[in-house]
Amino acid sequence: MTVPGRRSSTFTRLLRHGFIDPSAAERLLDLPDMASVRSDPVLLDALGAVADPDLALRGLARLVEAQEASGRQGLLDTLIAAKPLRDRLLGVLGASEALGDHLARHPHDWQTLITYEATDLHPGVAEFERGLADANDPVSLRIGYRRCLLSIAARDVCGTTDVAEAAAELADLATATLRAALAIARTATPADAAQCRLSVVAMGKCGGHELNYVSDVDVIFVGEPVEGADESKAMQAATRLASHLMRICSETTIEGTIWPVDANLRPEGRNGPLVRTLSSHVAYYQRWAKTWEFQALLKARPVAGDPALGEEYIEAVSPMVWQAAERENFVPDVQKMRRRVVDNIPAAEIERELKLGPGGLRDVEFAVQLLQLVHGRSDATLHSGTTLEALRALAAGGYVGRADAAQLDAAYRFLRAMEHRIQLFRLRRTHLVPEDEADLRRLGRSLGLRTDPVAELNKEWKRHASVVRRLHEKIFYRPLLDAVAQLTPGETRLSPKAAGQRLEALGYADPAAALRHLEALSSGVSRKAAIQRTLLPVLLGWFADSADPDAGLLGFRKVSDALGKTPWYLRLLRDEGAAAENLARVLSAGRLAPDLLLRAPEAVALLGDPEGLAPRGRDHLEQEILAAVGRADTPEGAVAVARGVRRRELFRTAAADLIGSYGTEESPAEADPGALVDRVGSAVTELNAATLSGALRAAVRQQWGDSLPTRFAVIGMGRFGGHEQSYGSDADVLFVHEPREGADEQEAARAASTVVTEMRRLLQLPTSDPPLVIDADLRPEGKSGPVARTLASYEAYYRRWSLVWESQALLRAEPMAGDPDLGRRFVELVDPLRYPAEGLGEDAVREIRRLKARMESERLPRGADPTLHAKLGRGGLSDVEWTVQLIQMRHGWAEPGLRTTRTRRALAAAHAAGLIGTEDAQILDEAWVLATRVRNGVMLVRGRAGDTFPSDGRELAAVGRYLGYEPGHVGDMLDDYRRITRRARAVVEVLFYGA
């Protein structure tokens, strides 16, 4: 008798044996039917060894209760006496609630676990067919299927079979089940069966002999008429048989379902006929099939129906599978497939996804299949549909390093074991790791983790997932380095031909040159070469993710050649995780950033500093440039320093733009393209303003020392004044001066003109740094007028001669360099012109519209597509800017928010003032941002300015990647551009032209 308030000895023993709810377990053991084993240490020890002792005991009590009265003690006696049965039965009951339910419904099925013979340990299709021999309808087929499944699960949870063997047995059981289902369908419609030959070809995990406990069984149906039969009628009969087979397996009955039979991998998917003839299959694959379809055919295996027809199908499609890597679109298809498809996974689930999440099963399977397609062309040993067998073959052939293959094998086995145990619990199709503590505990214990099951499970899972996350580095690229470095004698390596094939499949257009670069970077036994061999596998993967992998690798070699002897360079890339990825993105995204970097490779240090890519303000830049100018001996030397700072800052801005557009493994791409545009425009404008300040100081010091005889200011115009410059923009300016007291006006004018000439000369001297072109053509009288005027001269001109287009141009006027007070007074002078009191008159509005229409007809380059010209085309920059500027000139006098030189700010102010509707404002803003990004992207990719999309395919793809389009979606990019700008033009027609 237990003393009140004190726990019984049984309670304590149950707790010690791993029970979570010992009180409930005690009540179950106190049931009359369980009395004979209540205190049996053999039973308690066996229950303590299973995944979930509470679940196992509940299942056992239900099973005993379901027995006939005369059979209950016999079950318990056998359980205690026979260790194999005890381990199997309790192991299943402790791991699978669903199979416990099955045993409660079919209480005699436990006896199938008694047999312990050699054939029972490793059954095949024949044994499972015998187990299903009595099935003659869907219900009896389900009962027989679960009876067989019970034996597979028992061997699995007891460790008699490993995860690969269990998966193979599940595939064999599926094969036997499909055959039984087809036999039932044939019996139901013998007339259909007599007209046709039908073969069931397994695909996916069933075809690969690596099925899950609960998974769709992917199939393809091949049919042929029997001799003398009409083909059309025979195919209709075959379709009815195939449909019936699918219903037999998939439909829910009183015994539940087995699994869905999925035929969507067939030609044309759901839109194609369910059953095709062999010749129809071959014709489709020869003409229409995509790369992923040949990848799927790697696992094709005839499993049911006419065996000869199934073998004919395999013989017909196999040659096409192993030639897929030679197809025209193989590389872009591979690039698309290599990027993980996780968009459809809810954000809350992505970290729990065993199959599709980062470091998941799909990553291993895809990588192995890709290498099979690349190298299986010339090596038949790789022709296996089973992932682990193919991985072993790849290692044996030197296509994957043996140590890496062993690590991936272990990771894949662990992840598959987790998947199996998760599905086994309720026999439901899922790839999500549970969140509930009890579920995680059962899962961990089922995998042999007993000390702290939940913590150990999470640790092991994360460790193996991290191995898989790096698999591209391990199995795609490291063997390439082994092939060229040749440091380990006796190790099987990739041949040069195989290495070239792999590089070509991964997107390298010139594999021979890529191999030369790899050899130059990684050969030898120096510390430098050793670090490169560590870095390159990762870098090669990042290069391959870009539109131009060859350029990325070539650029890296050049940077490494330039900096290889400096102690900090390789250490930076090795130890600062972001630096290497940032460098890879920058080098492979186009020409501009690498060109800027290679002129001063030490700027690579910016990529490793967390704040290194943040733009620096004008005050900071001016301080640095003016200090350098002050130290220089000559104006040429002074401006050389200023241009060097400009080059470094252009690189900083371009690198930040590229990395923000592409994103990295640690930080996603910038979601707001407008923010990227504003950052670039502001950074380049501030930089150019600081550079002009330096050039002005250098020009003045040469002849006049610290002070000119006239005050002098540089007024930014156009995109310069609007803080909207791109990487290759000229600096549109006006030069204004004002003679100092007592100075001669003619001498002051000559001094101002001389300064302008000298600034232009200095900023365009031929050097390795990009020039800054000064354009003063917006000045009064254009090229015919003086290059610099006094403030009084501007005032006289604008009062008497100013045209409406000049007032419009002055909307962008903002002081950029020189005397700040003079710049402020110039702005006060032009404000009444650009924001006229009471707004523009109708004549002025008509004149602006006339000028715009003339510009559209005359200035668009001959042959340019008006729907794709970012500046002058339909709905492009010019359309949006003229519309906004017209609103500014009409309403700026009354709305202070409109008095800005920046297009987006003026547009937002117009919307806030109710001058433009919300939807119209959004449409115009989206079009302006997109057109600006196109111009920026073209400059980044080509290294020279352009207003239209590139005609070269690789350059066009690179612009697409910059704009956020995945490989192969260039057409979508052009369609989206046309759609967005077409909508903008419709708004312009109303707001600007008054349509």
Separation, N- and C-terminal Cα atoms? 98 Å
Mean pLDDT: 91
Strand content: 5-15%
DSSP summary: helix tally: 45
The rough form would be described as elongated
Helix content: 55-70%
Structural class based on helices, strands and sheet pairing: mainly alpha
The tally of beta strands, per DSSP, is 10
Q: From the alpha-carbon coordinates, what is the Rg to the nearest angstrom? A: 38 Å
Largest sheet: 5 strands, mixed
The parts where pLDDT drops under 50 for at least 5 residues are none
What would you say this structure looks like, in words?
The protein has 995 residues and is mainly alpha-helical. Helices cover 61% and strands 5% of the residues. It contains 45 helices and ten strands. The strands form two sheets. Strands 1, 2, 3, 4 and 5 form a five-stranded mixed β-sheet that branches. Strands 6, 7, 8, 9 and 10 form a five-stranded mixed β-sheet that branches. α36 links the parallel β7 and β8. α5 crosses α6 (83-95) and α26 (511-522) packs parallel to α28. The longest helix is centred in the last third of the chain and has 32 residues, at 673-704. It is elongated, with a radius of gyration of 38 Å. The protein starts with 8 loop residues before the first helix and ends with a helix. The model has no long low-confidence stretch (mean pLDDT 91).
Could you list some keywords that capture this structure?
elongated; 995 residues; 10 strands; five-stranded mixed β-sheet
